[in-house]
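Quick check before the chapter quiz. The format below is the same one you will see on the exam, so make sure you can read both the input and the output lines.
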Amino acid sequence: MHLRLSEEQEMIQKTIRRFVEKELIPLENDVLKNEREGRPSLEPGKLKELQKKAKDFGFWGINTPEEYGGSNLGQMMLAIVLMEVSKTFVPFTFGGSADNILYYGNDEQKKKYLIPTINGEKKSCFAMTEPEAGSDTQNLKMTAVKDGNEWILNGEKTFITGGNEADFVMVIAITDKELHQQTGRSGVTCFIVDRDMGWKSEYIDTMGEWGPAGLVFDNVRVPEENILGEINGGYNLGLEWIGFARWVVGARAVGMSERLLQMAIDYSKDRKTFGKPIAERQAIQWPIADSAVEIEAAKWLVLNAAFTLDQGEDNRHLASMAKLYGANMGNRVVDRVLQIHGGMGYTRELPIERWYREARLWRIYDGTDEIQRMIISRNLLKGHVKVGQSV
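Here is the expected output.
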């Protein structure tokens, strides 16, 4: 058992850290200004410029197989990279990647959707959540009815990340109502649906800067060849998509929290009350200590979940633990850091209030706190996981 990063991992971590400090953090004031004025946080041209710089550093398709031009660094390395990139709220992605379930496409689908997405020529989104079916997927209502060699899709999806910008959506719809009612899982299929096939999207206004979409399908016709995976096998694809996203939330929480904790440390040394830096006050020292301990715990939960996946093992239990603890840890840390900064932390002059709003979402999407607790406890009570097995 080796509890330290390898030399290669440390080198990549330091390189990403320099990129974030040099290229991304200096853009934060511009991002805040753009968001206040209702403009895109980061202009597409600027994003492509940053992605090219990252590519020159060797970071393109971090977890994309080499046969598709990616680096294929593995999940562990991806976690490390995400922790570093999440030390800024500048909306940056390295590019050269695609949704994990797109790799289940056949040769024609890979040519038409996967490769263009990896190359940055197309944007995708995944849609499963509905107005009456979030965690309760048994309550899905969207249907797909076969008509000749086409399927007619009707229904709505909501809170879809990237839904307003996507060129195509991977959407889950009921294809066998009776089977779905019996099991709550089977009887649904994943379809690849181009925007020009007729679905529409609209922004959902939220308390944070995340701009999800509501998608509407009104008699949208989709050809048979656009079924992703197997007919009535869409639920497992949905689980795989969501399962990957869960531990990623924990990684983002770690990165944000490390940046915020350093801000709190620096501020507490400079800010004086009654003739002394507030860093000398126990009321400030304890939340700093608590935050440091919790960040370290969340980090190892995330790395363990990623490492397990790299070994080809089932990491769903660990991913739920990393998501649950990481998301809550991030909320506690940002709250403490705002409190330490006092009134200044509440202003928009500092990025703390923005992170405060963003972090609250982590406890809801990709499986709420309650769902993660249900999964973890069920695994233990039914004996799927033994106490101590996950470590």
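If your answer matched, good. Residues 234-270 form the longest helix (37 residues).
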